[in-house]
Amino acid sequence: MQNFSTLDAxxxxxxxxxxxxxxxxxxxxxxxxxxxxxxGGGNFIDTADNYSWWVDGNVGGESETIIGHWMRDRSxxxxxxxxxxxxxxxxxxGLSRSSIxxxxxxxxxxxxxxxxxxxxxxxxxxxxxxxxxAAAFDELRRExxxxxVGLSNYSGARIDEWMRIADANGxxxxxxxxxxxxxxxxxxFEADLRPAIERYSLAVVPYFGLASGFxxxxxxxxxxxxxxxxxxxxxxxYSDEAFAAVETLVDVAAAHGISPATAALxxxxxxxxxxxxxxxxxxxxQVAGLLESTRVExxxxxxxxxxxxxxxxxxxxxxx
Length: 320
Ligand SMILES: NC(=O)c1ccc[n+]([C@@H]2O[C@H](COP(=O)([O-])OP(=O)(O)OC[C@H]3O[C@@H](n4cnc5c(N)ncnc54)[C@H](OP(=O)(O)O)[C@@H]3O)[C@@H](O)[C@H]2O)c1
What we know:
The chain contains 12 helices and 12 strands. By secondary structure, it is α/β, with parallel strands linked by helices.
């Protein structure tokens, strides 16, 4: 278990993503996925108020609603650490004080709880003064609706700015950062975010740990990608070098008798600053491979091989 320094909770080193809930998994499958994750030792669930609005017929909030039903039926609220995000729900777009407060009230209702363990600003909103956004997060924290502040998709400069405002006003600093980071996409992280993470001891909880499935090894051609419901998310990784990196990953995984997905998460888990990669499972059978990544130790030589293929990739920042 890992600790967020200012969050009084131990977290399992693999965070269950939930943008699949109400999308590629219906409610019954989603609940079975959470059951399998928790039965396997997991306690850290990542959602957002807008998941999964992009599905025809959805309005946003379906993922939180499913998590709320699960927590209620299992009497599990105090056994799980819930991270959600605000700023992108169609009814509460952006990070003004009123949007944030409206979004959080709706998240609490959907999840049938009175607190959120970690609330991330889903992405920067340069149209609102950062002072207003940071103050609104701190107000919620002092009121007890949220326990800790996180940032997602922020640049290093804007993290600096948020910290400066927090310190000047006596706000609690953000403790967690959720960036796009995986074996195929790391240049922006290393160049722009690494210094801020070290400066503020941020707990890194990277998303797209499996590169939306690319790192499971099941996409081996352009046609495979184009036929996936995740085609738009997979597009960013497409290159000959990425397919070559997957070949290396498959090789490393085979030496351990594990799946490429497990090996990809085992690599990510030991990157400096990372406390728990986020990965999701569309089906309950996929959960075991995610959990197994917390028990796999790749050798220094294997990590070096993966670092080398990863460094050769042409993507990693431009499209974040
Ligand atoms: N902060 C942000 O802006 C942001 C953005 C995106 C995501 N996130 C968070 O990160 C989480 C993870 O993102 P993601 O789900 O898009 O990507 P991901 O974790 O990189 O990929 C997960 C997908 O890979 C496939 N998969 C998993 N295990 C597998 C296995 N053993 N074999 C074959 N396929 C397997 C499944 O999809 P299929 O079976 O459908 O192929 C699964 O849904 C999200 O749920 C969300 O919580 C945050």
